[in-house]
């Protein structure tokens, strides 16, 4: 057995002696009343109301946007503004477009789909009442009666009966026909005239529109007025080694050539030097950082160029520490800013070099090359160290590098090595005419590094029987003089000593035996 009521249904099923009761409230949808149908028609009217506003707003927007666009392009055409003003003009146009479309198109479309606040049913009823004489205030009164039914529960049944009756009476009235979308054609007068002006300008003078439009759209780019001549930069490259001069070469081509051209750097204008009727030059001196410049002539400007710098490795300072062989007894010395030297054989030379903008320094000899890396770096200046012991004369060069870029000119030097020669000695023997057994020795000794001692060694090889055995051989140190000379004992021999104290040669041994020992 089933029993259905309004909005609620109850079912009772009999299974044997048991009764199962099921509540199916909400399964069967409530029946739509005449009042519900009336509200649906009002909602349709509201949607059409905002659609009408969106169409009208679109026509307004077309006219306003064309006026804004024409105003921006004509301003740019007359002013030919720089990047700053064009950027402001661009974003002002974008902002105006967003405001116009948002106000007249986007907001009505949102409200048509009930996004945001929309007009109430009472406001819609008043609008419908102004279009239908038979409706007048009846529709609004019906909505008010419905509100009274909710506020007075004791009279709810009576009031709902009155609402249903009036809703049936208003049912045939086409609320949406109160708005005629075709009537929006009268608003074409706001859109068509600006569009007509735009079309005329595009046909008659397109440069008034296309050029300014491009400059506004590309507001960050620099656009220059068209000159009756062309600036032609003749330099193949705009790079210069740091702290060097750079000469800019400019040529003007065209029917009209101005008499003077200026280069603008950091807002300052400098006249170029005129080479002939069409060629001009300017020299940037001691360029240490990138320079942005442009050419100006007769009120016309060229594009902006940038002169860039590249590292220029340069040797700034050179020191050489000389460590002589110990046996020479010479003190260590330091030589500054001179790469050409003469040094004794066996001297160790240590180079300390400072270079600008260098990450490597080649110390290249005629037999090998040392690739030196910086030992320290300070404010763009690097220090390099290298060392070598020299046994023979060498030619060498120094070439600092910065990456793949080398110094324009490698510095070349020569180290002359003085060989360490053996000492020399010359001995002259004379016999005393009054005593034939008395011999006199006179000699000269020489060495490239000088002498410390001179020893006279003697030994009797014959005829010394009259001399005591302990006196038949011995050594006597002779005094050195610029021209040394001495009287030596009979049958002696001379052996000079180097400053190191070691013997450097043998000279005479015995009478008549003047052979040299090595």
Compact summary:
This protein is of the alpha+beta class. The chain is built from seven helices and 29 strands. Strands 5, 7, 8, 11, 12 and 13 form a six-stranded mixed sheet that branches. Strands 16, 18, 19, 22, 23 and 24 form a six-stranded mixed sheet that branches.
Overview of this protein structure:
This protein has 518 residues and is an alpha+beta fold. The chain is built from seven helices and 29 strands. The strands form seven sheets. Strands 5, 7, 8, 11, 12 and 13 form a six-stranded mixed sheet that branches. Strands 16, 18, 19, 22, 23 and 24 form a six-stranded mixed sheet that branches. β2 (9-15) and β3 form a beta hairpin. Mean pLDDT is 76; it is low at 1-31 and 483-518.
Question: What does the secondary structure layout of this molecule look like, with pairings?
Answer:
Layout: E1 2-4, E2 9-15, E3 18-23, H1 34-79, H2 83-112, H3 121-131, H4 138-151, H5 156-170, H6 188-204, H7 207-217, E4 229-233, E5 239-241, E6 244-254, E7 262-265, E8 268-271, E9 273-274, E10 279-287, E11 291-297, E12 300-301, E13 305-310, E14 314-323, E15 333-336, E16 341-344, E17 347-356, E18 360-365, E19 369-372, E20 376-378, E21 381-390, E22 394-402, E23 405-406, E24 411-418, E25 424-431, E26 439-446, E27 451-459, E28 473-478, E29 492-498
Helix pairs in contact: 1-2, 1-5, 1-6, 1-7, 3-4, 4-5
């Amino acid at each position: 057995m089933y029993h259905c009521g309004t909005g609620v249904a109850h079912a009772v099923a009999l299974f044997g002696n048991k009764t199962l009761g099921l509540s199916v409230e909400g399964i069967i949808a409530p029946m739509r009343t005449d009042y519900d149908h009336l509200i649906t028609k009002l909602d349709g009217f509201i949607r059409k109301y905002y659609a009408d506003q969106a169409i009208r707003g679109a026509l307004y927007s077309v006219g306003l946007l064309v006026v804004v666009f024409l105003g921006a392009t004509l301003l740019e055409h007359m002013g030919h503004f720089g990047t700053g003003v064009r950027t402001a003009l661009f974003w002002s146009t974008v902002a105006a477009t967003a405001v116009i479309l948002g106000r007249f198109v986007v907001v009505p479309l949102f409200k048509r789909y009930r996004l945001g606040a929309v007009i109430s049913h009472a406001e819609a009823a008043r609008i419908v009442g102004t279009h239908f004489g038979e409706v007048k205030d009846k529709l609004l009164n019906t909505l008010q009666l419905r509100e009274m039914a909710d506020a007075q529960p004791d009279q709810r049944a009576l009031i709902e009966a009155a609402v249903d009756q009036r809703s049936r009476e208003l049912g045939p009235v086409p609320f949406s026909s109160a708005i005629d979308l075709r009537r929006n054609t009268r608003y074409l007068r706001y859109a068509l005239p600006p569009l007509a002006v735009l079309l005329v300008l595009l046909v008659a003078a397109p440069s008034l529109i296309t050029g300014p439009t491009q400059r506004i759209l590309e507001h960050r780019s620099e656009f220059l007025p068209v000159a009756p001549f062309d600036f032609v930069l003749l330099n193949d490259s705009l790079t210069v080694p740091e702290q060097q001069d750079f000469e800019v070469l400019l040529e003007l081509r065209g029917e009209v050539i101005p008499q003077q051209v200026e280069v603008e750097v950091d807002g300052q204008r400098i006249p170029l030097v005129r080479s002939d009727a069409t060629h001009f030059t300017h020299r940037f001196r001691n360029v240490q950082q990138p320079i942005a410049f442009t050419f100006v002539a007769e009120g016309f400007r060229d594009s902006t160029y940038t002169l860039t710098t590249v590292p220029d490795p340069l040797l700034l300072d050179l020191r050489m520490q000389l460590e002589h062989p110990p046996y020479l007894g010479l003190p260590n010395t330091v030589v500054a800013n001179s790469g050409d030297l003469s040094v004794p054989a066996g001297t160790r030379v240590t180079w300390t070099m400072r270079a600008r903008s260098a990450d490597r320094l080649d110390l290249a000899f005629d037999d090998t090359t040392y690739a030196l890396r910086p030992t320290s770096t300070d404010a763009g200046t690097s220090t390099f160290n290298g060392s070598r012991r020299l046994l023979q004369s060498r030619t060498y060069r120094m070439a600092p590098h910065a990456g793949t870029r080398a110094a324009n000119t490698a510095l070349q030097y020569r180290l002359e090595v003085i060989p360490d020669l053996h000492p020399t000695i010359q001995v002259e023997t004379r016999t005393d005419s009054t005593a034939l057994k008395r011999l006199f020795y006179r000699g000269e000794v020489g060495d490239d590094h000088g002498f410390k001692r001179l020893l006279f060694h003697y030994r009797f090889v014959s005829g010394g029987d009259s001399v005591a055995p302990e006196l038949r051989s011995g050594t006597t140190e002779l005094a050195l003089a610029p021209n040394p000379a001495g009287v030596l004992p009979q049958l002696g021999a001379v052996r000079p000593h180097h400053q190191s104290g070691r013997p450097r040669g043998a000279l005479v041994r015995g009478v008549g035996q003047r052979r040299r020992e090595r």
